[in-house]
Amino acid sequence: MKLIAVIDDLCFVKEGCEGSKSDDLSITDMPYAILMVILSLLPVEDAVVTSSVTKKWRFLWSGLTQLNFDARKSLSKIAYNKLLYSVNKKVEILELDLQNIEKDHDPDSNYDFPLTFPSSTVVELVSLKKLYLNNVTLRDSVLEELLTRSPHLESISIHDSSYLTRIRVVGRCLNINHFEIVQCFDLESLYLSDFDLVSFIYKGLDIDLCLTNLPKLKKVSIYQGPAALENNVFNQISSCASSLQDVTITFCRPEKSAKLGSIPQLPNLKNLMLTIGAYEDDCLLEFASIAKACPILETFIIEVSFSN
């Protein structure tokens, strides 16, 4: 193999010698610690191949403390087979969790959720009730078609998906009662309207969020970082205020942009949890006034994360 040929050609000169051919030492004579550093920089497959260079190196690669495999092709094949199985067997629950442990991984390497299979078979999940996608690329048009082709879908959760920019879900024909979007950092707007949604979760960056004509919406959890109050998150949920029973909102550094004067009346709210990032000298008493808009409130929790 090419790697072996390169290694065989490498040599170094023993320190203190004049560099004659008799003083040339093979790379196989290099100190163990240096060899391990070199192997640690190679792909796993190439590191293993070095075991055939010399008997001395037969088990050298097994001393590596970390093995990093490139399993993208394998994972894509597994995801494809699982999706194909789900279509053929008419499953009710589909979970594709392809979370990548690399902090700086390329989103382009994520599995791309298809609308059709290579055989030209259309992806129709007619029996699907629950869908969970993590680190799966899902584009706006694909999501729209997916909802159309999944008439019995009740719960959809999308985490760390690339290329979702504008989500618009509208229609009385939809059966979705749980909608969850987490860390989809390309997202710019989210519009949900005119169906029987019961619970909604959003965690991510500042977006244009609109929840309207959702008469059965009871549970909402929203995190938009520092922009939560700047965007007046209470105003974003105001059109559903009369039906809400459980609300969780996370704020970061609220004193920078607090707009608590326009809190809508929440006549049926029973549980309210506010998670607030603050400094030790911040005054958070203004948040207590929120309770005035909740006449039947049973539980009110303010969780504060203080910074120095």
TrEMBL record:
It comes from the Eukaryota. Residues 24-60 form the F-box domain. PROSITE patterns: FBOX (PS50181). Pfam families: F-box, LRR_At1g61320_AtMIF1. InterPro entries: At1g61320/At1g61330-like, F-box-like_dom_sf, F-box_dom, LRR_At1g61320_AtMIF1, LRR_dom_sf. This is F-box domain, leucine-rich repeat domain superfamily, F-box-like domain superfamily. It comes from Helianthus annuus (Common sunflower).
